[in-house]
Amino acid sequence: MLSDNDRVKVLSEALPYIQSFAGKTIVVKYGGAAMKDESLKAGVIRDIVFMASVGLKIVVVHGGGPEINHWLNRLGIETQFKNGLRVTDAATMDVVEMVLVGRVNKELVSLINQAGGAAVGICGKDGNLVTARPQGEAEIGFVGEVNAVNADVISTLLDGGYIPIVSSVADDEEGQPYNINADTAAGEIAASLDAEKLILLTDTAGILRDAKDSSTLIPQLSIGEARSLIEQQIVAGGMIPKVLCCVRSLAQGVNAAHIIDGQVPHALLLEIFTDAGVGSMLTA
Ligand SMILES: Nc1ncnc2c1ncn2[C@@H]1O[C@H](COP(=O)(O)OP(=O)(O)O)[C@@H](O)[C@H]1O
Ligand SMILES: CC(=O)N[C@@H](CCC(=O)OP(=O)(O)O)C(=O)O
Questions:
Q1: Taking the complete model, does pTM exceed 0.90, yes or no?
Q2: What is the ipTM of this complex?
């Protein structure tokens, strides 16, 4: 539930935003910590259905790293990360695909449908949405980069009134499946759709001047400022690929990219429909 203060803020500020974003495409990357808690998940789902019901074209690209960890652990398969990416051998790839495409994707579809939306779950393979290529380093295995996006399949679903839910698993040209980081997939999909916004839900308030202090949130920044924060090592660790993914999508025509805390109740509505927002907004 929104607090009384937030409810008044959203209601009084939302209408012009709703009018200006109606018919525009918003790509939401949902994953990681923001997915762990069932009641938070229900809140995110309700916000997604609300945004779709007021005429925004919502595309959800999801991760599910913690769920993959859980199943690898149950199957006794060790997992390790290199520069934030999961080292993916053939056995790990099978589990990644089963968990993301089979489990996380269908759970999100089902939750959205129960909340009154009409979701269709797909992965990079469906309609050749994403073609993958190897990330490069041999030791990292079947970790992929996005080689090409054929966004027709998403546009067709959006035009039919559906909410596409996309898993970041895709084949290369020979049919070999690859594990693509969900932030990366979301950024490239947003760019190919010429999206109004890319929104990354994570577990920190946004881009912080001091990563340990959420009161140092930077609410708005340009591509240049974002690059300089990386150079100064103010943006570090897992935040680097997120910021770079935002920068790449902005450079390819996305109007604004947002990094927000998916654990804040109704973070999506507050970020999109209020003047102050709750996280960091990057623009070209
Ligand atoms: N300047 C910064 N602002 C915010 N977070 C930062 C910053 N620099 C480093 N980080 C770290 O980046 C993390 C977010 O990346 P990550 O854990 O990979 O997110 P997710 O699991 O949602 O994909 C934060 O939890 C924080 O520890
Ligand atoms: C290559 C790589 O690391 N892929 C990720 C894909 C899922 C993901 O990105 O999930 P989150 O958004 O929840 O972290 C993985 O295997 O965990």
A1: yes
A2: 0.96
